Amino acid sequence: MTKAKLQQLQQVLGAPVVTGTMSLADWERIGGKKDAEIGDYVETEDGVRLITWTEANELQYIQTEAKLTPLEKELLRWALRQQSGKPGGGTDLERQARRLGEWIEQRILSGQTHAEVPDWLEIRGKLFDGMIPFLLQNDQAGDREPAYSELEKVLRSFLSDEMLLVPLQEREWLILGPDRLLLEVDSADSELVDHEETKEALFSLATGLHEMFTEQWGGECHVAVGEPIIPTESLVRAVSELRETIHLGRKFHVGMQVHMPWAVHLERLLNDIPEAARSRFMEEMMARLDLFNDPETVSTLDAFFTMDCNVSETAKKLYIHRNTLLYRLDKLKQEAGLDVRSFNDAVLVRIMLLLYKVTKRK
Amino acid sequence: MAGVRLEHVYKKYPGSDKASVTDFHLDIKDKEFLVLVGPSGCGKSTTLRMIAGLEEISEGKLYIGDRVVNDVAPKDRDIAMVFQSYALYPHMNVYQNMAFGLKLRKFRKDEIDRRVREAARTLEIEHLLDRKPKALSGGQRQRVALGRAIVREPQVFLMDEPLSNLDAKLRTQMRANISKLMKRLETTCIYVTHDQTEAMTMGDRIVVMKDGVIQQAATPEVLYNHPINLFVAGFIGAPAMNFIPGQLTEENGAVHFRATGINVEIPEGRAKVLRSKSYVGREVILGFRPEDIHEEPVFIEASPKSVVNANIEVCENLGPEMYLYLTGLGKDNVIARVDGRSTLKEGQNVKLAIDMNKIHIFDKDTELNVFEIE
After folding, report:
1. Domain B4-235 falls in which CATH fold?
2. Of the candidates A154, A158, A208, which has its C-beta nearest B88's C-beta?
3. Potential cystine with B9: which of A82, A249, B24, B313 (Cβ 3.0-4.6 Å)?
4. Disruptive mutation site among A211, A220, A316 for chain B (greatest number of B CBs within 10 Å)
C-alpha cells in the first residue's frame, strides 16, 4: 500500500495506520484463519490487523488502533479484496514488481539493508547479475502519477526489453537496466575496462534518462544512478544509497537533477555533522561568506573544483582566458585571505561553499 | 502551428511572499520568434517552464492556439523543448535519438524515416546519423538536440539558453543557424536567454524582464532606439548606454541639460515635450548611446550646442571600432564608440559632440523615459 493511500486511510479512520509483515504461522498464532486471504482480519491488543496481501509463508498487513464496528471491518475487507482483484492492479509483472517494491520498503524501514531478495518473490527470476540501478523521483506537482504500464512501456523502449520497473514510494521508481547498456554508450563498441569511463557512461545514461523523462513525459524528475549490482544480493542497499544520494544532491546541489553516489562523499560527511558544529564553522567563516553572493565567484569556484583545481582546464571550461581566471583567484585571495590553489585553503573553501549553499536557502 | 497567449499570468512559490512572475500578459503570434531576456532571476525561465507545463501557473490563463492548457500535461501540449543541457540518449545513435519521440508516439516507420532524414538534411547532420553521441562535437550534439525537437513538428518550440554550453565562436554560428531554421520551419518559437546580443540578433520581438515583470515587449529596433525605462536602456546595447544624472534648465529661451563638465542644449522639438511635462528645473538622467557621441570635426562643427570636453582614460581598439573611456562628464565613465582608425590616444583631452536628436531623458524617480511615455 502506498504512503498516500495509507494517509488517506488514516484520515478516513481518524487513527494511525501502520503496515507490517509476518509469517502465516504467526498469523495463526494470533488467531487468524489458516488459509489466510486478503481482507481477513483479527483483533489484537493494539487494534485491528487486516491482510493486504499474502505470498507463500508470509503476509503483509495494515493495523489500526481505530475502534471499528463489524460493518466497518467488513467494508474494509471488501475494499482490500477489490483492490487486489481489480484490473488496475495491472499485469502479473506489475503485481510482482509492486510486491518487490513493498518488500524493499519494509527492509529499508527495518534497517535490513543487507537483506537478499527471497525466493518466494516471483520476480526474483527476472533479476540477473549485472543490472544498473536507477532511482527516479518525479516531482511534477498537480499531475497524476504515471501509470505503471505506460511508464514501463516507455522505459522498455528507451533502455531495453530486459529492463525492470519497480514502484517504490509514491512517484518513485527503481529502474533496473542491463549493464550491456554501458557498452552501447561507447561509440567504439569496445569493452569498458576503465572504471572512470564506466562512471562517465553511467552518468550519461542517467542524464539521457532524465532528459527522456522530462522531454517525452514532460515532468520534472531527479535521477540517481549506481554502479551495476547483483540485484538478488544488494537491491535494498542500492535503493537506500540512491535515495540518500538524491536527498544529498537536492540539498547541496540545487539545480542539479542527476546524482551519483560517488559524487556526494563530502556532502554525506557534511550532512552527518551535527547542526551545532556546522553553524559554528559557518559563524567562524562568516566574514568571508559574502564573497559567495557574487554568482561569478561561485561559478568560478564550482568549475575550479570540478576540474580538480586545474587552472588551464577551468579556464577552458569557463571559456575565459587563463589570466582572467588567475585574476579572479588572486582577487579571492586578496579579499578572503584564502588561496584555492593551495590544498588546505581549497578544502576550506570547498566546504564553505557547500555549507553556504545549504544555509543560504534556510 | 499556433500562437501562444498568456493572460495575466502569475507564479508564486509556496512560502514566498513575492511572486516570481507578476501579471505576465502577452500575445505571441503564430510563427513569431519571441525572445525572453533579462538578468538571472528575472523570471524568464520560470515563464518558459509554465508554458512548457513544468511549473504550475498560480493565476491567469495560458492558451496554445485556442486551447487553454493550464491543466494539460506537458506531453500533451504539442510543444518541443530544447534546454541548455541538451543531453542526448548516449546508448542510441543520432538517427535513434531523433526517431525516439516519434516511435513513442507510434508514428509509422516510413514517416519517422522521412522526418528524421529531412531534419538531418536541414541541420546538415546527415553524415552523422549512425554515430553515437560520444563521437560528436559540442556543436554537432547541439544540432542533434535541435533535430530531436524538429522531427516532432510541434506547434511551439521552447528553448531555454540552448547555446550557453557552446564556446563563443560556435555560439555565433549556431545563433544564425537557429534563426534560419526557425524562419524555414515557420513555427512559433519562444527563446530564453540572458545574452542581449542573442536577443537582438534572433528575435522578431523581445520581452525584457526584471524582477518577474515585463519591462518592455517590442522589436529589437524599438527596444534599442525607444527604451521605455532606464533598465531597458541599460540592458540592451553593448557597451551599455551612458547615463549622466543632472538638471534641466531654461537658458536664453532654450532647454539645457547641465551636469559636471556638461552643458548642452536640447533641440526645440524635444524641449517642447520636456516643457509640456514640466521637467524643466528638475533633476533627470540623460542617456545616450556610445555611438551617439562623436569626435569627427564635421559633426562637431555642425553641433556647436552639444560640444563637450573630456579626458580619454582608456582606449580599447577592437579593429573596426574603438571604445574611448572618458572622464570629466558627470561622475562615471562615459564610453564613446569611434572609428577604429581614429588617432586618439589615452591621456588626451578631446572635444566631442553629442547627437542631441538621439538622446533620452529619464525621470529620476520613476526611471521612465520621458520621451516614450504618454
Report:
1. Rossmann fold (3.40.50)
2. A208
3. B24
4. A211
Which residues of chain B are within 8 Å of residue A180 when distances are taken between CB atoms? Answer: none
**Listed residues A213, A229, A260: the one ending a domain:** A260
Q: Contact A218/B54, CB-based, under 8 Å?
A: yes
The domain that holds A342 is classified in CATH as: 1.10.10.2840
Give B168's contacts in chain A (Cβ within 8 Å): 319
More confident residue, A44 or A190: A44
Chain A residue numbers with beta carbons less than 8 Å from the beta carbon of B131 are 187
**In this model, does residue A88 exceed pLDDT 50?**
no
Chain B: residue whose CA lies nearest to A160: B91
Q: Which of A141, A201, A218 sits opposite B56 (nearest CB)?
A: A141
Return d(Cα A91, Cα A147) in angstroms, integer.
Answer: 12
| In a shared domain, residues A283 and A254 | no
Does pLDDT of B60 surpass 80? yes
What ipTM goes with this model? 0.72
pTM of the model: 0.76
Q: Do domains B4-235 and B242-363 have the same CATH topology?
A: no
Cβ A207–B81 below 8 Å, yes or no? Answer: no
B200: left (phi over 0), alpha (psi -120 to 50) or beta: alpha
Per-residue pLDDT of B187-213, as tens digits, reads 999 999 988 889 999 999 999 999 999
- The confidence score (pLDDT) of residue A84 equals 59
Domain interval for residue A132 = 121-260
Chain A nearest C-alpha distance from B254 (Å): 46
Fold of B242-363: OB fold (Dihydrolipoamide Acetyltransferase, E2P) (2.40.50)
Q: Is the Cβ of A216 closer than 8 Å to some Cβ of chain B? A: yes
Provide the shortest C-alpha distance from residue B281 to chain A (in Å): 39
